[in-house]
């Protein structure tokens, strides 16, 4: 006998939450790119090395996307966040390959997507455990 809460994991997976997390990840990456563009346009220095900021922006995007995904799913935040981060990594890899037309090493691509998946799962864990302040106040009787 299987209880209703014991359904297989793939049945409890919410694709809409994963797409919501992917949208948040891409939106935050776009915001980081706009901030970097403003920094380059407004500063007086002639040389800009933004590799660190691009890497940090992509990881921040994966964490925020995972948090939004876990919050939207409400359950299994690690899995939902990992899938959102992995889809985000695949999308970034596709955009990179479309722009460069060079081959990238499989190991490098694997570790980048794995890192974004882990960052997304950390965000998913935080998002699924995030409590809304209004709900917390109403539960306490205030």
From TrEMBL:
Task: Decide whether keyword Flavoprotein is in the record.
Answer: no
Q: Which InterPro entries match?
A: DUF3792_TM (IPR023804)
Superkingdom of the source species: Bacteria
Positions of transmembrane segments: 17-40, 52-70, 77-97, 109-130
Q: Which Pfam families match?
A: DUF3792 (PF12670)
**UniProt KW Cytoplasm keyword:** no
Keywords linked to the UniProt accession: Membrane, Transmembrane, Transmembrane helix
- NCBIfam families, A to Z: TIGR04086_membr
What is the protein named? TIGR04086 family membrane protein
Please report the organism this UniProt entry assigns to the protein: Pelotomaculum propionicicum
Starting at the broadest rank, the lineage of the source organism is:
Bacteria, Bacillati, Bacillota, Clostridia, Eubacteriales
